[in-house]
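User: Could you go from structure to sequence for me? I need the amino acid at each position, not a summary. Structure tokens:
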């Protein structure tokens, strides 16, 4: 082993691919989500246990049997009652948790290549709106991450990555404002309709753009994500995390390595 190869046969400055780096971050993000979910499960168990104990201490449950009722099976244990109630309580806790800003966000809306594409004359009005929608924050899907084309913010997984210089998506051409990855664009970009969005238009029909300062938030409206109820979204998120966990474990390095700078 030579001095410039302190780690076996791998040089200290060996190449690291972007896909390797993203795979590591995705693994850490999944771990964070699993830890948060474990805490939610503990919260749900405490709620279910508290409810059951309250019913029993108040004499509400189990109800006393009417006179003359034949001997019934043994009274259900507290543990059994909690186990029975837990799935419903946990679903409600998870649904309430989704109303807050999530530390790890995933688009749960389905396959972007089969989603209904909004029929907007983007090229016709681009000189007026200046691609304002490309400054909005939104989450990517596991499919977007697996493709490795759409870039995401490592500090806010898995939100679309934006330029620090002007706040636009990194895939938005700064000169023309056209999308440079149009074929691979995320589902949100395909389905989003700006015509009624006050952040983009004061009057779309008359082609009057919104003025600076109107509707300052740059997040995509909740309605874009929550076309189904929170309970259903909680179930879909659980399934999405399973998929993301499997995907991050099975990823492989791509053919476009980047060299990390020496410390």
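Assistant: Here is the amino acid at each position, in order:
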């Amino acid at each position: 082993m030579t001095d410039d190869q302190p780690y076996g046969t791998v040089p200290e400055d060996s190449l690291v691919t972007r896909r390797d780096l993203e795979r590591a971050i995705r693994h850490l993000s999944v771990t964070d989500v699993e830890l948060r979910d474990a805490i939610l499960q503990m919260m749900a168990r405490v709620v279910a246990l508290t409810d059951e104990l309250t019913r029993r201490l108040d004499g509400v449950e189990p109800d006393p049997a009417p006179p003359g009722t034949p001997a019934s099976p043994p009274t259900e244990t507290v543990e059994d009652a909690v186990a029975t109630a837990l799935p419903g309580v946990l679903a409600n806790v998870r649904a309430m948790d989704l109303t807050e800003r999530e530390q790890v966000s995933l688009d749960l809306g389905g396959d972007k290549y089969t989603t209904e594409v909004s029929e907007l004359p983007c090229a016709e009005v681009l000189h007026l709106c200046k691609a304002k929608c490309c400054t909005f924050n939104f989450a990517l899907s596991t499919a977007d991450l697996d493709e490795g084309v759409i870039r995401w913010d490592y500090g806010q997984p898995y939100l679309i990555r934006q330029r620090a210089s002007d706040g636009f998506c990194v895939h938005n051409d700064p000169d023309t404002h056209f999308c440079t990855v149009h074929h691979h664009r995320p589902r949100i970009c395909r389905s989003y309709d700006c015509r009624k969005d006050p952040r983009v238009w004061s009057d779309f029909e008359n082609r009057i753009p919104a003025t600076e300062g109107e509707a300052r938030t740059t997040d995509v409206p909740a309605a874009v994500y929550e076309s189904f109820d929170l309970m259903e979204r909680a179930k879909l998120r659980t399934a999405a995390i399973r998929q993301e966990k499997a995907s991050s474990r099975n990823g492989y390095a791509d053919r476009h390595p980047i060299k990390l700078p020496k410390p």
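One structural detail worth keeping in mind: The radius of gyration is 25 Å.
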